[in-house]
């Protein structure tokens, strides 16, 4: 457990650099950014349900609706000055910024490598503007040909402020248990680049039932779909043996592991009671359990908004593997000034202090010390 | 917190009475029970992936495969003597038995009421055979016309050993946030009948990815799909206002709430940050939070196989609302005698003792005291 003083590090915080915003503005299918007459900010449209609303508006004309789909793209998304303001307001010393979902998942094969290179360069130059305060997780051109994808890893490891890569769950289109990803995982591990695993696709919308879209806002897909997506992705990697095959691979899981800390016991039980796995000899004494992988290869952010879940995350991975985050610029305050304090900071910080004690070694570690040590967040590193 | 001595109660334990087995044997689509030449036990086929295997076998002939689909229907499913043997082996004093998934969800409208009545009578007569050791959660004829469904509640409340009803997540076909269920919930609440909410349908199989069926056994749908299904169902009820509209409704959630204790913080955050809900005035100061509902109307079983998740469940609902269970006859031991000790008992009991201390008041409460008090498990009650 590292205590590097009382510095606060935000390891889950996103940026949309200008070139990425332009890319989204040029698109006709989700994800896309669309401007509406009379609306102050353009809208960022990600979810299938939002695309349906957009479709209705296109057919009926914007005047037919009082509510625009998606979320406003405020300066919080793309302004570095705003990011620094957010950090200063919340006494965050260092942010490890990353592109937000869905990254470059949608970019055509021929453009992927160059788009990734330009986005990663923009991230590096943002970090250079604020020495010691910004580091970043790079973005991989997953739709690029295999050799360009490996070259991209080589490129980002040369960027001074890059500490890993942010990765969605789709991989090359078939999930992260795809054997074609093994060379990617090996290259990342070899270069000491952590994977920050982050959800985007959620679950098929029919699981939310007929009332969800009209009545429950985005609560179900965001609160339940996202964490499950992460859990499924990492469970598939575990079952495919990725963690054994690439033992140096280190993964940081968004939202405190989705639901992994809570469900690890049930996963273990389902494994040892699975006739197929037992017959295949996959449940032998040498098997590394989910619990071991949680303590040896997995790190968890502390973006869980309650000490109840946070304690389970700490119990599962260890207090030296949890790292504070805010998820900025998502979930802005709706009933107070968004230049002021955000609940994402308040709730997640309170969770750490309630779980570990205000000012305790554990709290200092989770709030920043762990990230500084694990990700080597020193300007001269 | 109740400590009624050191009696152990299993509140999550299923039975397939003979009439229900016959019903399943007569079916052509899942769920069904099928006998195969040369196999000792018939097979119980529930999951869509298993139905696909069955289809292949039907086409190719049973000899073409070495592995039969589904799970063996051993005497653990339908023999009361075997249930009592399991209880004796594991020092379980009282079991609150229930029909297993998918209950009567598939029964035609015209037959539902009578089938439910006969199943519930069979449960009552099993309880009568072992006074003081067995109580049960009844089964509702959800596909019956509304008045017969309400009459069924009236019927089961008159059965001496009935303490509630086991309910899946489909309700009348559109989930448990269906307003047509409000009279059902009100009737249950008025009669002091607890709902035991139990998953069956999991998640659409595409979420498990292309390798799941062949390589990962049933791990993903059972370990992740089931708990998420429960979480979605109860979150939809919460968002629909069911708990406010029926404040006396009491629900016991299978598998320690699915993932609800871990995700409650994120659900709360997503609610207060949801533009739609805020605009609709649904996030006012009078809103009862998910945390309040967890502590006031929800009970959780302790079927979670680890103290990590169990502690979160206790933190979320309170030690007086957790109740031990085994999920018998599911997850039989695969590498030891199934007449001996089962991991389901060992792991879940160890979780309680690690979380609360061996022999502590809390452990006694969770292992049996709470169930005895909350469900009034007294023969003369």
Automatic annotation (TrEMBL), chains A, B:
Keyword Lyase: yes
Domain Amidohydrolase-related: 109-341
Pfam families: Amidohydro_2
Gene3D superfamilies: Metal-dependent hydrolases (3.20.20.140)
UniProt keyword Lyase present: yes
SUPFAM superfamilies listed in its UniProt record: Metallo-dependent hydrolases
Sorted UniProt keywords: Decarboxylase, Lyase
PANTHER family: 2-AMINO-3-CARBOXYLMUCONATE-6-SEMIALDEHYDE DECARBOXYLASE (PTHR21240), ISO-OROTATE DECARBOXYLASE (EUROFUNG) (PTHR21240:SF28)
Family: Belongs to the metallo-dependent hydrolases superfamily.
Record-given protein name: 2-amino-3-carboxymuconate-6-semialdehyde decarboxylase
Provenance organism: Apiospora arundinis
């Amino acid at each position: 457990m590292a205590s590097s003083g009382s510095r606060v590090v935000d390891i889950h915080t996103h940026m949309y650099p200008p070139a990425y915003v332009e890319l989204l503005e040029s698109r006709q299918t989700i994800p896309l950014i669309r401007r509406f007459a009379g609306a102050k900010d353009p809208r960022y449209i990600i979810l299938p349900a939002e695309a349906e609303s957009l479709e209705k508006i296109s057919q009926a004309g914007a005047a037919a609706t009082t509510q625009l789909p998606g979320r406003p793209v405020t300066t919080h998304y793309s302004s570095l000055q705003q990011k620094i303001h957010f950090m200063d307001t919340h006494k965050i010393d260092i942010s490890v910024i990353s592109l937000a979902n869905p990254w470059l998942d949608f970019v055509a094969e021929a453009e992927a490598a160059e788009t990734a290179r330009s986005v990663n360069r923009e991230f590096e130059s943002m970090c250079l503007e604020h020495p010691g305060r910004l580091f970043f997780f790079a973005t991989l051109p997953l739709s690029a040909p295999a050799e360009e994808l490996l070259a991209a890893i080589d490129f980002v490891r040369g960027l001074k402020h890059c500490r890993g890569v942010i990765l969605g769950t789709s991989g090359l289109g078939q999930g992260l248990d795809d054997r074609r990803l093994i060379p990617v995982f090996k290259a990342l591990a070899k270069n000491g680049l952590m994977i920050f695993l982050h959800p985007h696709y959620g679950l098929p919308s029919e699981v939310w039932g007929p009332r969800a879209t009209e009545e429950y806002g985005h609560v179900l897909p965001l609160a339940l779909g996202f964490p499950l997506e992460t859990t499924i992705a990492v469970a598939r990697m575990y079952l495919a043996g990725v963690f054994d095959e690439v033992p140096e691979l280190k993964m940081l899981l968004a939202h405190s592991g989705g639901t992994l800390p809570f469900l690890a016991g049930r996963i273990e039980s389902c494994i040892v009671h699975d006739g197929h796995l037992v017959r295949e000899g996959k449940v032998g004494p040498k098997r590394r359990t989910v619990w071991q992988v949680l303590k040896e290869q997995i790190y968890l952010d502390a973006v869980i908004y309650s000490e109840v879940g946070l304690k389970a995350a700490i119990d599962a991975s260890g207090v030296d593997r949890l790292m504070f985050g805010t998820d900025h610029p998502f979930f802005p305050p709706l009933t107070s000034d968004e230049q002021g304090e955000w609940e994402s900071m308040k709730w997640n910080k309170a969770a750490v202090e309630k779980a570990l004690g205000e000012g305790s070694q554990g709290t200092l570690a989770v709030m920043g010390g762990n990230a500084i040590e694990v990700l080597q967040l020193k300007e001269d590193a």
